[in-house]
Amino acid sequence: MIISKKWLGQYMDLSDVTIEEMAERITDAGLEVEGVSHMSCGNHLVIGKVLSCEDHPDSDHLHVCQVDLGEKVEQIVCGAPNVATGKKVIVARVGAKLPDGEIKEGVIRGVQSNGMLCSLLELGVDAHILSEDSKNGIELLDEDAPVGNEDPLGYLGLDDAILDVGLTPNRNDCMSAWSMALETGAILHKDVTLPYKEGSSNIGTATQLKVSSETEKCPLFLGKIINEVTIKPSPKWMKELLLASGMKSINNVVDISNIVMLETGQPLHFYDVKAIPAKEITVKDHQAGPYTALDGAEYELMDDDIVITTEGKPIGIAGIMGGDDSKIEQTTTGIIIEAASFDHVSIRNSSRRLNLNTDASIRFQKGIEPMAPFKAMDRAVQLLMEYADAKGIEETAQYGTNNYTPVEFNVNLTKINKLLGTDFSEEEVLQVLNELHFEPTKINEDIHLVIPSYRTDISMEADIAEEVIRILGYDRLPSTLPYMPATLGALDKRQRMRRRLRDILSNIGYNEAVTYSLVSKKHIDDAIMPCSQDIVELASPMSEDRRYVRNSMLPSLLGSIAYNQARNQSDVALFELSNVYGKKYVEERIAIAASGSLQKNRWQKFSVDVDFYTMKGLAESMLEALGFNGNRISVRENKLDIKHFHPYRSAELYLGRELLGVFGEIHPIMAKEYGIEDTYGMELNLEVLLKNKASKVKFVEISKYPAVSRDLALVVKDDIKVADIVNSIRKNGKLGKENIIQNVEVFDIYTGEHVEKGYKSIALSIVFQSNEKTLKDKEINEIFNNILETLKKDVDAQLRA
Predict the structure, then answer these.
(1) Span 378-418, pLDDT tens digits
(2) How far is Cα 367 from Cα 169, in angstroms, rounded to an integer?
(3) Which one in 336, 497, 518, 639 has a CA-CA gap of 20 to 30 Å to 762?
(4) What is the pTM of this model?
(5) Alpha-carbon gap, residue 723 to 710, rounded angstroms
(6) H or E stretch covering 380
């Protein structure tokens, strides 16, 4: 919110308060003043009159001027193209300090110069509020400018200071100068008088104007015809206030619409009455098509946009900008005033899509108090009668209602003090409530309050407690030490798992990634193990790429792989721990993606590339480290998701009977869509691990007895799984109370010559070792023969000849 000290000074006496003190007090009360600036800067200035202007004898663009300063005449050399005899100008005398330096007496190309004729740019005035003439030359003053006046900036209304107040989302009311004045008055304990006359618009003859709305996005619309207005320059005070707010003065009628918006926070729109001969205005949506707005640009409207129409044709984009064909011109003799309430979400969406962030749209987006349309209509009629000779006023036409009921409730001083930890007196609190215009009334031990319509953020006793402490000062809060019971700090089960997974993956060379939780529809469609019926969609997303809350993590990680591969980083290994969301659930998952080589040594020509078995081994080693050993983990054929994973190079991972995740090579079609090559991925649901009890990870000493290795080659049918063979071997390793089979490793799978069609040869190495003694051949042979019998029985395995 931009507001000037002069503007606030119209409503209260600020003569005893500096702008810096105001900024500090307002900030202390919870509305942070982000900046204090002055509209202009310079001292030792005076208004002068150019008595003569002659060309410089040694320059083709400089002029030698004799300037009357009131008390004396000074010779000044000036290079401005618009300087001329008889013009009144701003003169910086010798010794004046301007933004760019100090003015000194000097000689310019052999001619004495005692001062400088100034442009407003040279006096620090913001360029965007200046006309082209003001930018390109010195400032020329009106004929009635008093020569010798030593406050030319004050004469121009540029001696003002500006507060840039950062508003919190709940204080949209302070977008109104009147509300900001009431707030400032309460903070500074000043009496505030607003120039508002309630009911000023309740005048006029019977109207022919008909207003209506065909959309629920416009619950209230006020329209008023004023048949006669006079277009002329605005009064000086109005020009100065608009200038301080960063707006240029256009004419009295347009300026009144702007000044009322700034005062009340309610955007108004004035239509030329001749542009609406039917005297009918209807608010609609579903008016898709091209439309030329007030700025002369053409915009493509969509069905969701709210449009002001007459006779079925658009004349304005509701809450954003009016049309080029109904704007106020110098020839305008009558107007129609519009004051309405529009759905703030719809205005925000239209404004963002059309890239039209106007002063009106910003106010509608933040929300406007319910009584603002009526206040704005009253104020507009009041100003039009005073400064635009308004006549032929018709009564106000109204559609709908604001359904406003004043908020009233009781508060208790004892409860407020208890909530704040203070001991404020009743007198202090009542004074604050009066200054905030909450109309406090004592009822026994309680205080009854009626909240003003503009304070939409106040609804309960806790809000009042906040108002009391911020006005009286947070420094009034007593200093106390917080009560902190002694607790034992420790990680919970979930935190321990996160830390362990990060350690495991980081130690083997994987890098942790952090990707956006908000994703596009494409990522939702490509979700791994999704809950597709429960997707969270944002009502007002930053962009279409950030419309949904993700329900899977691997697609986001594949985007990171694509980013790296596009920059010639082919060896990438990433993981991410995060949550995925639905409307009724939150799941913690881990996603892993890798491509290229995990290890590479060009000197030794050694490379270990990522493949299906990399992901499988990684999953098994992670789970084993977490206490979920091989007996509880099973790898099954991937039938769950062959759209995103290669159907023959992927698998499902189960913990007992519960699906834990999916891993394998990314499907070639999906890889092409994401712009990646030879990438393998995995996504695991950690909630499954967290609700199952992990086995304790035991550490045992290395056996001091020798190990014995036996190899065997088996012939089995093609559909037999290696995991079944390994499980059959391991369950026969009992010798006494220990299992002496330490490892079973597959080192070859062969199909072809000497192996019957439909069968395959699997070569395995079995390592036997005891922790208690040296194994004898007889003991090993006995277990080995049991293994062969079990394999014959379980998988119909035959020793290969």
Answers:
(1) 999 999 999 999 999 999 999 999 889 999 999 999 999 99
(2) 10
(3) 639
(4) 0.64
(5) 19
(6) helix 372-387
